[in-house]
Design brief:
It is built from five helices and no strands. The chain is mainly α and 119 residues long.
Length: 119
């Protein structure tokens, strides 16, 4: 909060904001900062590649893949249902990309993720 105090004080004086609104702004700033830091820490610790998002996956490359099922996995309901997801297929078909993309969605939802590549 100390980092934003001067800027918020100036804003409050210029806009004649009362004490309660001023305090709400400071608390909101701190909440947003903590959420951002938490997300960044979970992303760093996950070992995921942040550029491998679901929107960048080429479903035309794998036409037999059920796009609806993949987007359902991206809701991360399988986590709360305590179910496992296993991607199987030939080399180079996008399994790793999908794992990263779904992991990134889980991080957005506040979950901790760890990507481990096995043979």
């Amino acid at each position: 909060m100390v980092d934003r105090l001067e800027m918020r004080n100036k804003h409050a004086l210029e806009n004649q904001i009362n004490y309660l609104e001023f305090l709400e702004l400071l608390v909101e700033d701190e909440f947003v900062r903590r959420q951002s830091n938490s997300y960044q820490n979970r992303l760093r610790d996950s070992k995921l590649q942040s550029q491998k998002i679901l929107d960048a996956y080429d479903f035309l490359f794998q036409p037999e893949l059920d796009k609806r099922m993949v987007y359902d996995l991206a809701t991360c309901r399988f986590i709360t249902q305590k179910s496992n997801v296993i991607f199987m297929g030939k080399l180079g078909v996008g399994k790793t990309h999908l794992a990263h993309a779904i992991g990134l969605e889980a991080i957005k939802k506040g979950k901790k993720v760890l990507f481990v590549h096995t043979n």
